[in-house]
Amino acid sequence: MKKIISVLAAIVLIAPFTRIRADAAISGISAVSAVVIEAETGTVLYSKNMDEQRAMASTTKIMTAILTIEAGDLDREFTVDSYAIMVEGTSMGLREGDRVSRRDLLYGILLPSGNDAANAAAVSVSGSMSAFVKKMNAKAAALGLKNTHFATPSGLDAEGHYTTAYDLAMLAAYAMKNPIFREAVSCQYKEVEFGNPPYKRTLYNSNKMLKQYEGAIGIKTGFTDNARRCLVSAAQRDGVELIAVTLNAPDDWNDHKKMLDYGFTQVTAYDADTGCSAKVSVAGTGKEVGVYADKATISLTSSQRQRLERRILLPQIVYNDVQKGDKLGSIEFVLDGKTVKSVPLYAADSVESEKNGLSLWSRFLRFFGIYV
Questions:
Q1: The whole model's pTM is what?
Q2: Which of 73, 144, 328, 329 lies 20 to 30 Å from 312 when distance is taken between CA atoms?
């Protein structure tokens, strides 16, 4: 098992995305606002009014779902809040007195886009919808979504409820890193169990991209009278993952096909150089331990590949036993001053340190899990 050894070293701030604006003409895009990004680096491959604030309808539920997942306790069954589920619009079919788990609510949120499911999850996680909305906005701030503000867990039209195509792409990229979320949005249908008493029924995904586009893997549809048709989609081809967003798009399915097709012509998944001959000294032993990294790829445009830099972050000495597979450092791939990928470096062998030879200060640091 690969464990992590803490390293007291220079702190490196890693930006979640490298924002390289690349406006390009794709004919016939109906959306008022749109963007396509490469999911890992955040490279903007196509944009149209991507920073204009707009209502986002049920694509809101990306945030609702990820907060529900991160709250944990997904399989505990509870009785839904009767007020929360009294809501207009799309529904997973919850009724007063129904018992359900957060996991099944998650599918109700993401597949049929249940407003009842979103509200029930919000109350389950935070005690009230208003408290959950505060949590949504706190998360948005933490993710750097500077042009986003939430007013409802469901995405129904409300004053002060808006985002941008770019912010929504950022949120989607974050959510797609979560394996539970990722599995849920890729389902065309899912059997769940709820009711009073609970019984099984099947929920179907409203995202037609899963059937219509090669490599589609999610993620969320949306519509209200104010926001009009909204869509966030993700697709994979040849090791490249893209995320597309449209807001107010009368022809969103075709918009996304064109945008993703274009995006895949702009980016290639290259093998990352993960070789490393550096060694780390193990205190008190007179020995050094080599390191290795797993194979990795990084998706770049041709011009980005020429600008990519590689940095190795490793301590000179570790004051602790080293077991094969311990994380000792990382290889950082840097583009235009921003780290776009980090690949862990693991110990190639096991070495026991001389703990009795540690200074008082080193033993104090080691007590708190800090190793120089």
A1: 0.86
A2: 144
